[in-house]
Design brief:
It is built from 6 helices and no strands. Bound molecules: zinc ion.
Length: 138
């Protein structure tokens, strides 16, 4: 199983060719949300958030505390490392925190992004997490 630095190096090395391929496919408007989603998926929503002391968890700084219950709920390389259920679990987990914050302090209601931008963002979010899982299984 690769170390975190290997995961990050491979994930970040594949971002430029991915963006190049998307550009060649004519997905020009989608490049920015794809790149942002990819970086968020690689740097902030790694499957290794199931380890409270992991580098991805520490990137959250003080907000790392939000991931402590997640790390307690999900054993390392369990469901959190499933290619689809893992990212879904982290997105739903963050949505629960956002809902709690909204209920407690009444955060302003944000406009949902248009689906044309949301889909490439979600795709970008999913790709490095899937790559992480594949590398862990090698
Ligand atoms: Zn992992």
């Amino acid at each position: 199983m690769p170390r975190h630095t290997v995961h990050l190096a491979v994930e970040l090395a594949l971002l430029p060719p991915l963006l190049g391929a998307a550009h060649r496919l004519g997905l020009r408007q989608e490049l920015l949300p794809l790149a942002l989603g990819y970086l968020a998926g690689s740097l902030l929503l790694s499957p290794d958030l199931d380890l409270y002391h992991s580098r991805p968890a520490r990137r959250w700084r003080l907000l790392r505390l939000l991931w402590w219950p997640y790390a307690r709920l999900f054993r390392h390389r369990g469901l959190s490392h499933h290619p689809l259920l893992g990212p879904l679990s982290r997105l739903l987990y963050l949505a629960l925190w956002a809902l709690l914050a909204w209920a407690l302090v009444g955060l302003p209601r944000a406009q949902p992004p248009p689906p044309a931008l949301l889909l490439p963002f979600l795709g970008g979010l999913l790709l490095p997490q899937t790559l992480h899982v594949l590398l862990d299984r090698l």
